[in-house]
Amino acid sequence: MTVTIFVPGDAAALALGADAVAAAMAKEAARRGIAIKLVRNGSRGMVWLEPLVEVATPRGRIAYGPVNAADVAGLFDAGLIAGESHALGLGVTDEIPWLARQQRLAFGRVGVVDPRSLADYLAHGGGGGLLQARTMAPAGIVRAVVDSGLRGRGGAAFPAGIKWQTVLATAAAQKYIVCNADEGDSGTFSDRMLMEGDPFQLFEGMAIAGLAVTATRGYIYVRSEYPHAMAALNAALASAQEWLGDFHIELRKGAGSYVCGEETALLESLEGRRGIVRAKPPLPAIAGLFGQPTVINNVITLASVPDILAQGAAAYRNLGCGRSRGTLPFQLAGNIRYGGLVEVPFGLSLRELLHDFGGGSRSGRPLRAVQVGGPLGAYLPESQFDTVLDYEAFAAIGAGLGHGGIVAFDDSVDLAKQARYAMKFCAIESCGKCTPCRIGSTRGVEIIDRIRAGQLEQIELLQDLCDTMTQGSLCAMGSMTPIPVMSALRHFPEDFR
């Protein structure tokens, strides 16, 4: 009898030695004359347990981790093939408390399926959304997405269905679906994990979007630093075209620029030009890629669509709170004990996420601040950790959820130094098109350096500069850079003295 063993091929697991573990598994099984099927699945998101090895048994999949190559012989000796106990044993994977407390929709198959097998995807419930969409009129598909309450998961949180509605209502001979997979925010990795662990779900979401707005071509713009994601997408796409029917997907490697995560700079790059922000209007939904109506959504937004079509808009809308419906994959990084990906409905508090899932700081010192929403997100003090994870609740405290990335800091952090980093990041990554961003960020670094040197009277000048950048920048790059700076100054003024 052939036994199936799962060793992740996810980039984080690879960085922690998963390839060596997989090779050792194959070698040890061959030495013992044991027939195994080795599947390189995606990661379950428990990064502190990677490489996480699973074995299929009649009791379900049994997990062991973190495993290194030197552990493999001992695992076989202990009865790995039958899922027997071992010091690295974690029991039935689905019953691990960290996983069992989640409600995974977008990530329901990540870590479960073979990401290169369409048959495995379909066998685990994939494809139902596309089948349903093929029985519906375009307006009906759009209405389902509107009714679900799905908002863009890329940061702006704009209602996805309204964007699709605009594209559908705009007449054109050719329309496009563009997936923004240029995930560049610090502490974010959900897009990468989904592309590496369940690429067919992304394809399905894009094909449904195509049916909804009558688009026949789609592009996935993948961050240049994601070679493993690109490889997984290419391998999956080779077997997906017949299943996708008349909808055709092409992959494009990103230009290595943070600003290309902004939708109009991404379009410029896709069209073969330097990634510089376009002035709006016109909106990309009316005149986007090659001047044609274009839906631009990020990976998690599009990957959320198949479940909405398969299960119905009401089932999705019933999750979450307020105007934040459904689930969001939160990514825990920085000084955190249990870093990884947690998908839960909106409504949990930040404190619950940091402590119930994250386990507090990795250093054991008190958590002093977290930055939510990437390098342009606010630094939040411990007094705001009880804020509910909801778009409006975060907006009310001058913050944003962004892409769901959370970077934790203990009480040894220097927030004035972090504020300088935010300004420096903008100075390096600015596309240079508008003066407030291009010049303001450079002057901002200089002003923060003078403040840190004791010139506290420069704080007023920094505040004026940040106001100019917020009001005058062409895109979110310049207008959001003041958010981490001013939040650090507001909540941690002692660090600037």
Annotation keywords:
497 residues; alpha/beta; Glutaredoxin; Rossmann fold; Ubiquitin-like (UB roll); five-stranded mixed β-sheet; 22 helices; 16 strands; globular
Concise synopsis of the structure shown:
This protein has helices at residues 11-15, 18-32, 72-78, 97-100, 118-123, 128-133, 138-148, 160-169, 190-197, 199-213, 227-237, 241-244, 263-270, 299-311, 313-317, 350-357, 391-396, 415-429, 435-452, 458-472, 476-480, 482-491, and strands spanning 3-6, 36-39, 53-57, 60-64, 89-92, 176-181, 217-222, 248-253, 294-298, 320-321, 324-325, 327-334, 340-345, 367-372, 379-381, 405-410. It has 497 residues and is of the alpha/beta class.
- The stretches of 5 or more residues where confidence is low (pLDDT under 50) are none
Roughly what is the average pLDDT, rounded to an integer? 96
Strand order of the largest sheet: 2-1-3-4-5
Q: Give Rg in angstroms.
A: 23 Å
Form type = globular
Summed up, the helix count is: 22
| CATH architect. name of the largest domain | 3-Layer(aba) Sandwich
Largest sheet: 5 strands, mixed
Structural class: alpha/beta
State the CATH class of the largest domain. Answer: Alpha Beta
CATH superfamily of the largest domain: NADH-ubiquinone oxidoreductase 51kDa subunit
